[in-house]
Amino acid sequence: MSSLALQCIGRDCPPYWRSSSGTGFDQDSSGAIAITLERAIAKLRGSKFMFTTLVPPSCEAITLGRPFDELRNSLSELYRECSQSDWDGYGAQAITEDAYAEAQRIIDVLPSWLPAPEIVAEPSGDIGFEWYKEKGKVFALSVGGRHRIIYAGIFAGDKEHGSVYFEETIPLVIMQHLRKLYP
Length: 183
What we know:
It is a single chain. The chain is an alpha+beta fold and 183 residues long. It has helices spanning 27-45, 69-82, 97-109, 172-181, and strands at residues 52-53, 62-63, 118-121, 127-134, 137-143, 148-155, 158-165. The strands form 2 sheets. It has a 5-stranded antiparallel sheet. Strands 1-2 form a two-stranded antiparallel sheet. Strand 5 and strand 6 form a beta hairpin. Helix 2 (69-82) packs antiparallel against helix 3 (97-109). The radius of gyration is 18 Å and the shape is globular. The model is unreliable at 16-25 and 52-65 (pLDDT under 50).
């Protein structure tokens, strides 16, 4: 027996569907499950059904897409360039495999409505995600492979900062701050 769990925070649901790592779903049944999930997520979000057909509906081909593939590529490149100590010539710590894996998990759970952030290596060895909307509206978070997100934001004069535990989903406080930038 296979099971599938989906966590939504308010109207913010994951932008992806991952297939089972075991057996139990064939190509037809997994597509049907994905369509059902996407419809349910769209209903929760109050938006339109988002799957895109690639060919006439009779063929039932769909794309599940991964909205942040380019960001994943940037992360891989950043890791290759900054996984050695002193990568900046000023004594920066190397990005660790744990930091890289945690940054990948962040990308995996970013909501699809969110614009892609800039991704940066930090001298501490952490990986940062930065969203700049306009002057006076910015939010940044960083991860270092320690199951903790460190964040800071400026929202039209109001400043917020802190740290929060991270495991499988974007913590609510992070989502609330991102919603301040992108309501």
